[in-house]
Amino acid sequence: MSAVISLSSVGFHWPDGTPVLVDLDLLVGPGRSGLVGVNGSGKSTLLRLVAGALTPSSGHVIVAGEVGYLAQDLTLRTDQRVTEFLGIAPVLAAIAAVEAGSVEQAHFDVIGDDWDVEHRAVAELARLGLPADVLGRTMGELSGGEVTQLGLARLLLRRTDVLLLDEPTNNLDAPARQRLYDIVDGWTRTLVVVSHDRELLERVDRIGDLRGGAVRWYGGGWSSYATQVAAEQEAAAQAVTGARSDVRRQRSAQLEAERQLAQRRRVAHRAEQSAGLGKAQVNYKKNQAERSAAGLRGVHQARLESARERLDEAESRLREDREIRIDLPGTEVARGSTVLTTDGLVLRTGARVDLEVRGPDRVALVGRNGSGKTTLLHTVAARLAPLGGTVETHVPVGLLPQRLDLLDDDLSVVANVAARAPGVDHNAVRASLARFLFRGSAAERLVGVLSGGERFRATLATVLLADPAPRLLLLDEPTNNLDLPSYDALVSALASYRGALLVASHDERFLEDIGVNRIVDLTDLTG
Q1: What is the DSSP code (8-state) at residue 392?
Q2: pTM over the 0.70 mark
Q3: Across the strands, what pairs with 192?
Q4: Grouped pLDDT means (10 residues each) for the chain, 527 residues
Q5: What is the C-alpha separation between 42 and 36, in angstroms, rounded?
Q6: CA 202 to the chain's CA centroid
Q7: Measured between alpha carbons, how far is 230 from 247 in angstroms, rounded to an integer?
């Protein structure tokens, strides 16, 4: 199989010197490939290097064909027309000029072979579930899911040879996700997707695990990958157990050898005294005994070092992410106590919401893209004013926004958290951050260089470690930027959270895993 993407000794580090990738060699062939790995392992950075959005600090990246890249968080101008975002505005303008009677060669040069660009654009929009009138809107009028769909439509219109998708199901509702799955199922060229979406990963031909600065490939989709990794981890755990036992045996053997040598020295000393040997003979026997003892010690030391090396090697094969745990602090809400009430609430989307949350309710907000889920959360958090009516919260509220825009990129993780908890001792903040996997120097990293999943954990820490701690937690698509181990850790942590939850999510599995007890569908409430 010939390689479409080739990386040779590629290294990359951030401007502050933080290394992300070091001497990475990678070959990716045609077909559909998934890429997984713990947050911060460099998955998004790798895609950006392949796309040409970043320049490697060392090494070479070679890609055969035109590359289309869908970033995890698309940079937008809210006033930009959709046709401009799709890259078809100049062609549409040139076609309009020609149809109006212009014969300027420049217009024909712009059009090229794209006389049917509007028809193709409408067809791709329909394929993704978007209406044709989207072409007349601005980007600021669209929901996060619609922006993601348009980003994919832009790439499909370009007919790229290599498609790079970074967490493409983020913000997509269930119908939009299914349309994306259909596109992946039918993709015949080269595709590389970074995702935590298990259903999407089931649809790839192979999965690459980026770990320790290298990519290891596993054939098949997610289920096959998970089975293979589980078998590897079981074998690795058994190897660690055996290697530890061997180290203990070698230590015991070494101690027993030293005991025997000490006994020999005592016996030899008594024999020398009773035999009345001369000084020269005594020294000869002593040197001979010391050489023999040194040889025996060397044998046992070599065996112990060899056993330790085997233990280190076995432990290195155990995945560190098995130990990820996020402990969510929170103040318990009394059962049945009033947490949130609304009165004649009308959101900016036009949805009329009648909502009451009591402790410790777990309420899921669902609905199609643009139905107002994010708008409702921001209204409850007092970040947006409603069109009408009121919303009242009766406990401290914490919002984890979809775009993770609470943090100052120029400050460290610990400084961001401390700013939200001015009454909390700085050392206490640092100690609490360890529960969110920011230990030691990791807490001093600038937010601007964090990966998507690391930024999620930093934002979650900022929200939950605030003073006072939230007893109503608002989560807006919280699984968007999580790697798979962190997803499992978040689900486990929310199981022990005793406050009330109001969660907007398209991830049905996540809603089921955290045990929501009520669902509010905003699609039914939109006027």
Answers
A1: E
A2: no
A3: 33, 164
A4: 87 86 94 89 92 94 95 81 92 93 92 92 93 90 85 92 92 88 94 92 95 91 90 82 81 75 66 60 60 72 79 68 57 89 91 91 88 92 93 94 87 93 86 84 90 82 88 91 77 84 90 91 70
A5: 10
A6: 18
A7: 26
